[in-house]
Write the structure tokens for this entry.
Amino acid sequence: MGIVQTSWILGLLGGVLLGISSALLLATHGRIAGISGIFGHVLHPDTADRAWRIAYVLGLCAAGVTASLAMPQAVTSSPRALPLVAVAGLLVGFGTRMGGGCTSGHGVCGLGRTSGRSLIAVMTFMATGALSAWLAGMR
């Protein structure tokens, strides 16, 4: 089976693992698995609970390394230039601060907790993403 034929299985497995990890973080630490908040507090000087945050971020990095070693054909580089990707990343970071959280925090955790604020945020993310994809396809 090729990577295209198994990609839906990998996506399903990734989604299940993400759901389990976010539920476990909430159950064991009472924390939301929003990556921008987790990472942002790692960098904040007066964070008391830095250890689990560092472990979470390192786990994300380890998962990426493991995936690239296990299935190198599934991990590709960006078709865009690095400066453009860096600017896009900064804009996403700015947007997560404006929106009070990132897509993982609102989409995975907020919707799971039936947060109305997260529903509005996710609808905004999806509409903006669809519009951006449509505009990018017009050129």
Notes: The chain is about 75% helix and 0% strand. The two ends are 35 Å apart (CA to CA).
